[in-house]
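Hi P.,

Sorry for the delay on this. The queue was packed all week, but I finally got your sequence through. Input first:
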Amino acid sequence: MPPLIECVPNFSEGRDRPVVEALAAAITSVPAVRLLHQTMDPDHHRSVLTFAGPPDAVGEAAWRVIAKATELIDLRQHEGVHPRIGATDVVPFVPLQDTGMDECIRLARMIGQAVGTRLGIPVFLYEEAASIEARRRLEAIRKGGLKGLASRMEQDSAWSPDFGPPRLHETAGAIVIGARRPLIAFNVNLATTDLSVAKDIARSVRESNGGFPCLKAIGVPLTSRGWVQVAMNVTDHHVTPLDRAFQAVAAEATQRGVSIASSEIIGLIPRAAVTQAMAGALRLEEFDESHVLETALSTAEAQQQDQTVLGFLDAIAAPRPTPGGGSVAAYVGALAASLGMMGARLGGHRDKEQDLTHLQQRLYRLVQSDADAYGKLMEACNIPKHDPNRQQAIADALHQATEIPLEIAELSCQVCRSLHEIGRSAKPLVRSDLTVGIQMAVAAAASAIVTARENINRQRNQSIRESEAGRIARAEQNLEELKVLCYTPPPS
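Then the structure:
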């Protein structure tokens, strides 16, 4: 699958639809980029456009839309409830598929330099792209609005922009560009016009005031709707799920005698976050994405596509860590079993044919299982370090990521032994095929042991480590015995 990056620029324009449509057209003028979603809000006086594509194409689209916004939006005439410092206020790059944060940081710096040099707009890098830790958080850069930023730029050398002139652009202000992980913009609307209620609730739930981790919140008025709003950014839904954020706001509102009018998502949201919130709200036990019909269908379709040899080769060659060495070892072991099935059928070994058919099917299933186990390990490693569940999650994932290659090694050794037994009475026509199968089974077992040993070396749970180390040692001994059995020529 091709590498994909998401870009979610926010613009200080939410009332003039032709302007927003012109911004969208600037994005879609890059052929490889897809505009996924767009919103505009008259109270916030803000639009959010979401697009994705290959890294360089996304960078080009980001440049074009920033240039168009600079042409069309005059910040001097802007009034809205949302904090902002620029016509193009913030431009985050987010890794999606087969890309890493480094690529997003590269794009942020490349586009930032172009904007500063060619458009004369001061650019501040934030989040993962930040050059100064004090400017890592978006709210730190926006503090005090345009006047506050202009004052800091004038009086404090630490607030010189990363790119561009050391003063605000006359009509476009400044711009914040960076790289971050997926963020969910989640707003809860309160059935009251009392802004102090929304501000008090936002203060009580946000992380900076001792509330929920990975949750930012402000209170703003929605004049056109006769409500006020708790506008939130959830920066990691694994740490603070949406249902927990909603329940916290609802509880605070109830204490103040205010009801919830509605809630809304701005932009796009990962499906896993919706599933997680639903499971939390309904208190579902052991519920995950695999229970979603569309997920099961897409998984089945992907597995069907990967059944061809070419599909598997393409998947291995793709610039992502899965499927990797463990999956290859399982696939090679399954191929060795298939050669043995051929030899068993030609030689009339019905019992061996059944054994090898069973081994082939188990090894083939482990191709996907190994990839899934590595994916779970990556998920566990991405849990924030301050989460108390992180260490146990990594230990459990490493356990599974060790168990599967060990099973691959053990099954491949069984394949090797069966092939050797069939080969003793095989006809010359298939003897070389069986020898190839033995070589492949040995390679599969040895490779799987390498993967298992690598994972067990990362295991911090001592009891698991000791248990698996013994099993690895037995698999290694079994393999060495098979090598002696299979590779020692018969006496003349």
